Amino acid sequence: MHDSSSVTDLLFVFILAAFLGFQLIKRVSPLLNSPLMSLTNAIAAVVVVGAIMITGEEGATPLARTLGFIAVTAATINAVSGLLITDRMLKMFRRKGD
């Protein structure tokens, strides 16, 4: 179990990363949306693997298993929908004969 100071540190890092990530994505040009989607799909895949590891950890509490399941589900939906959107965007740039 984590002590309260490490939980506070982790929460601070999470909030800081969320803020910086939002600021970064907000400033991305719409022309770079496809590479950005590819990057977020890769991040979602890493989240899926991490959430599976946490969910399947021996001795995990029911709360950790429930949150892990929610994380696996949400990250999988994010990755699959991101891939579908990227594929649809790339189809817009193909020539009619291809």
Q: Your description of this structure?
A:
- By secondary structure, the chain is mainly α.
- The protein has 3 helices and no strands.
- Helix 2 (33-55) runs antiparallel to helix 3.
- The chain has a domain at 30-92.
- The radius of gyration is 18 Å and the shape is flat.
- The termini are far apart.
- 79% of the residues lie in helices and 0% in strands.
Which descriptors would you attach to this protein?
0% strand; 98 residues; mainly alpha; flat; 79% helix
The counted number of beta strands is: 0
Order of helices and strands: HHH
Shape: flat
Helix content: over 70%
What structural class do helix, strand and pairing data support?
A: mainly alpha
Mean pLDDT: 77
User: Can you summarize the main beta sheet?
Assistant: none
Distance between the termini: 56 Å
Poorly predicted regions are: none
Radius of gyration, taken over Cα atoms and rounded to an integer in Å: 18 Å
Name the beta content range: under 5%
Q: How many helices does DSSP assign? A: 3
